[in-house]
């Protein structure tokens, strides 16, 4: 009897042990990991499986993508830690001066982010294997670490790539780089639904994936954050330490600890004879990366780059003749992921003490940033600050001394209760210093991205950076609200922010007729600047419940519905003047296809859909013709290379379409094709050399090979802010004052228009912040930024700089709205 009982117990125990065995990704998916790409829903399924079958992993769904795919993070730790995870989180944030409980000392928080670029697809595969190994082989590390894994930051891009690859690939792995499976179509898997690069959106948070991720990230502010990427196939593996330039705010500990991690990674890679490199290419300056944004929030932020990218597929032959496989790629990423957790596990106390030091340091150059401007601009900035959990208030003082962003000089300025203040004396003080810095300090001009981004310039606000802390009160002022009006001749709305264009879009879609004034007028004791929106009762007799509808739309957009009681103005033009014109609904076409920048195309789509909620049609470069354009009255040309799209014959046809009333809006590189044609008035700027008598030929300077890259940057502008002059009497500049700070992204420059209007111009080489090469600066002087050429009944609008860049240069968006609604 005892033997029988013992056998039953043994059987039950064996059954329990067997049932607790966690399936590997290969076992769960039904194919060897790395033998094919795993679709996003299968990755989600595997993490759900782990959560159901392990006491060491829990899941949090934090949102959905634009295409409704799941965004989630997994928490991996000991059972006891997961039971007390909220307490641990608060203890950790106590070290950041956010919570007020006992300080965390004995746990390290490590966050691993995968697949922010959809076609860098090995990383989501690695996320599954990394989780599996942490729950099985490396389980001991979980006693002192909480590992947060985001398996896929960009599910829409990943599935776009994986689905395409599965459609075109051979049954057997084809390593030939010329095969179609190694050459993605025009819209690649790298970006998200709106074709934004999510790895450059951490700070600006324009995209829904970034916004929802920040909600979770700010709950944790990890000690260590890794962003897993892929680079081109002939580069081996890159890991920390990063390259110069490091932003000056990065601490010595953050730099040194990157070195410690790099040594540990190297140890594991050396065992396997794998190639790798460090301290090159990938710097830590631009604040909106997945390595820099966490760094400016106290983490050891890093990028790991595996050879592969969208061209690698399941296997590809490299320039050295090796076959790089998906299995190789995911194995390398798994190795560095585990190595990162290992180093954190061995340095728990140091990570906690240094994290605490990061948040206790208050050695800021500026203590307060005082901001003044249009309430809509301030409101838009507040939305961004709220996303980063940065607090702000309103002034209680009458004056402030400090650096004036407009002049670049120190001065004493009067301020009032309408001024907004952001003080650095708060947990996110270092992030504030980076985002608001008037001028970027650049130790090395060989950088990977733009070199200027200061928020007051991006949002079009007047600002003072003060070395003294400005006293504030809570920002709880009530905004005026729209109400029903009596004795209305016309409702009137201001025009000075892109949100006013969103209102206009809504009005037009409700078939409400709207007018605007091209000249200043004073009516009903109100000064009405050019671009003001007028909705007369006379024009809208066809609208039932007209007043109630205007009120409803006003409240929806948080706009005050002012009004005038007569068509007769006290000063300036009357309402019946020819200069008070109706704004027509535009039929917009956006050109897309080979040769067009997908990023710029996505920025236009996002602006029209998300900022304006305005209808448009995308047309392909392959189907561009006069017959196609006959259905539209506005054509938007995103940044791109147009020489193969618009030959001289097509340019003549396009000019004929414009002559009949069409409008072209050309962005960035799209302007080059017009400048190279003799039938348009845009010309590239050339530096004229004065010849001297008996001048000898210049001596060719020999440049060492190692210095050639640095020599080339003299001809570049890597995202610098310039102060420009604005002709705000032109409809393209309605809502602006006489200056505008533009973000210049390239060295192309155009002469001022001899026939047309030079609306925004760069008179001098007035670089406010960022790097601009010495040679290219010479030709920027007296160049065109934004201009308009009238052709017959139509217009072509030249936007040499991109006002929609990455969706974050808020103050540029009204120019684009003017181009759509106000011009012509």
Structure overview:
By secondary structure, the chain is of the alpha+beta class. It folds into four domains: 22-360, Zn peptidases (Aminopeptidase), CATH 3.40.630; 368-474, no CATH class; 490-583, no CATH class; 588-685 and 711-821, Class I glutamine amidotransferase (GATase) domain (Rossmann fold, 3-Layer(aba) Sandwich), CATH 3.40.50. Helices cover 31% and strands 21% of the residues. Helix 9 (252-272) crosses helix 11.
Detail the topology: elements first, then pairings.
Blueprint: H1 2-20, H2 25-29, H3 40-53, E1 57-64, E2 70-76, H4 79-83, H5 85-94, E3 108-114, H6 122-135, E4 145-150, H7 155-168, H8 208-220, E5 224-231, E6 237-238, E7 243-246, H9 252-272, E8 276-277, E9 283-284, H10 292-295, E10 300-307, E11 315-317, E12 323-325, H11 326-345, H12 348-360, E13 368-372, H13 375-387, E14 393-395, E15 399-404, E16 410-414, E17 420-423, H14 429-436, H15 455-458, E18 462-466, E19 472-474, E20 490-493, H16 498-509, E21 514-517, E22 521-523, E23 526-528, E24 533-536, H17 546-556, E25 562-564, E26 571-572, E27 580-583, E28 588-592, H18 598-611, E29 617-620, H19 626-629, E30 634-637, H20 648-659, E31 663-667, H21 671-675, H22 708-712, E32 720-726, E33 739-744, E34 757-762, E35 767-769, H23 774-777, E36 783-791, E37 794-799, H24 813-821
Parallel strand pairs: 3-4, 3-5, 5-10, 6-8, 7-9, 28-29, 28-30, 30-31, 31-37
Antiparallel strand pairs: 1-2, 2-4, 11-12, 13-17, 13-18, 14-17, 14-19, 15-16, 15-18, 20-24, 20-25, 21-24, 21-27, 22-23, 22-26, 32-33, 32-34, 32-35, 34-36, 36-37
């Amino acid at each position: 009897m005892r033997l029988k009982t013992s056998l039953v117990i043994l059987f039950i125990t064996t059954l329990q042990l067997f049932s607790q065995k966690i399936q590997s990704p290969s076992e769960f998916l039904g194919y060897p990991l790395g033998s094919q790409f795993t679709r996003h829903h299968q990755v989600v399924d595997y993490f759900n499986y782990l959560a159901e079958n392990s006491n060491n992993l829990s899941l949090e769904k934090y949102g959905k993508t634009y295409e409704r795919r799941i965004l989630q993070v997994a928490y991996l730790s000991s059972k006891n830690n997961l039971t007390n995870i909220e307490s641990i989180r608060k203890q950790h944030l106590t070290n950041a001066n956010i919570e007020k409980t006992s300080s965390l000392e004995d746990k390290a928080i490590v966050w691993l982010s995968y697949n922010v670029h959809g076609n860098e697809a090995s990383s989501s595969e690695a996320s599954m294997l990394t989780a599996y190994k942490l729950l099985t082989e490396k389980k001991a590390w979980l006693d002192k670490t909480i590992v947060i894994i985001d398996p896929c930051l960009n599910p829409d891009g990943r599935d776009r790539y994986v689905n395409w690859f599965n459609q075109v690939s051979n049954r057997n792995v084809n390593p030939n780089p010329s095969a179609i499976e190694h050459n993605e179509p025009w819209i690649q898997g790298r970006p998200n639904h709106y074709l934004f690069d999510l790895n450059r959106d951490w700070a600006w948070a324009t995209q829904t994936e970034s916004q929802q991720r920040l909600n979770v990230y700010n709950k944790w502010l990890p000690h260590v954050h890794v962003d897993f990427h892929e680079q081109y196939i002939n580069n081996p593996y890159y890991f920390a330490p990063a390259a110069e330039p490091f932003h000056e705010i990065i601490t010595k500990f953050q730099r040194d600890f990157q070195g410690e991690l790099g040594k540990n990674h190297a140890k594991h890679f050396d065992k396997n004879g794998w190639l790798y490199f460090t301290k090159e290419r990938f710097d830590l300056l631009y604040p909106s990366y997945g390595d820099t944004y966490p760094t400016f929030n106290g983490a050891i932020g890093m990028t790991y780059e595996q050879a592969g990218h969208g061209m690698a597929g399941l296997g590809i032959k490299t320039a050295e003749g090796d076959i790089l496989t998906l299995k190789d790629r995911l194995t390398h990423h798994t190795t560095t992921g585990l190595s990162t957790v290992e180093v954190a596990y061995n340095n728990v106390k140091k990570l906690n003490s240094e994290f605490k030091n990061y948040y206790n340091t208050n050695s800021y150059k500026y203590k307060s940033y005082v901001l003044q401007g249009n309430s809509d601009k301030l409101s838009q900035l507040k939305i961004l600050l709220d996303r980063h959990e940065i607090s702000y208030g309103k002034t209680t003082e009458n004056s402030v001394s400090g650096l004036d962003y407009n002049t670049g000089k120190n001065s004493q300025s009067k301020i009032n209760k309408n001024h907004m203040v952001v003080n650095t004396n708060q947990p996110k003080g270092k992030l504030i210093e980076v985002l608001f810095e008037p001028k970027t300090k650049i130790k090395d001009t060989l950088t990977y991205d733009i070199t200027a981004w200061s928020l007051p310039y991006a949002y079009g606000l007047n600002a003072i950076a003060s070395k003294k802390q400005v006293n504030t009160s809570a920002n709880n002022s009530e905004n005026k609200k729209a109400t029903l009006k009596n004795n209305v001749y016309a409702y009137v709305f201001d025009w000075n922010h892109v949100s006013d264009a969103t209102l206009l879009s809504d009005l037009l879609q409700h078939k409400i007729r709207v007018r605007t004034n091209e000249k200043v007028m004073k009516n009903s004791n109100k000064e009405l600047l050019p671009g003001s929106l007028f909705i007369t009762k006379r024009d809208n007799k066809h609208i039932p419940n007209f007043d109630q509808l205007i009120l409803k739309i006003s409240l929806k957009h948080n706009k005050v519905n002012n009004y005038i009681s007569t068509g007769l103005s006290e000063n300036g033009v009357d309402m019946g003047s020819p200069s008070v014109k109706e704004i027509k609904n535009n039929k917009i076409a956006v050109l897309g296809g080979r040769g067009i920048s997908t990023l710029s195309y996505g920025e236009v789509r996002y602006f029209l859909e998300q900022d304006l909620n305005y209808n448009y049609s995308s047309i392909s470069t392959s189907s561009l013709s006069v017959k196609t354009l006959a259905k539209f009255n506005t054509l938007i040309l995103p940044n791109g290379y147009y020489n193969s799209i618009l030959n001289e014959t097509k340019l003549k046809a396009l000019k004929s379409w414009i002559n009949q009333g069409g409008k072209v809006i050309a962005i960035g590189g799209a302007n080059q094709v017009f400048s190279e044609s003799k039938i348009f008035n845009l010309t590239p700027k050339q530096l004229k050399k004065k010849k001297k008598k008996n001048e000898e030929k210049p001596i060719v300077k020999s440049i060492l090979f190692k210095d050639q890259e640095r020599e080339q940057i003299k001809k570049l502008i890597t995202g610098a802010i310039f102060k420009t002059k604005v002709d705000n009497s032109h409809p393209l500049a309605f809502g602006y004052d006489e200056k505008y700070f533009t973000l210049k992204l390239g060295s192309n420059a155009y002469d001022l228009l001899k026939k047309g209007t030079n609306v925004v111009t760069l008179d001098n080489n007035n670089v406010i912040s960022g790097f601009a090469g010495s040679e290219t600066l010479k030709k920027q002087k007296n160049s065109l930024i934004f201009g308009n050429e009238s052709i017959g009944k139509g217009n072509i609008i030249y936007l040499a700089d991109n006002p929609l860049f990455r969706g974050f240069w808020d103050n540029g968006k009204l120019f684009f709205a003017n181009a759509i609604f106000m011009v012509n």
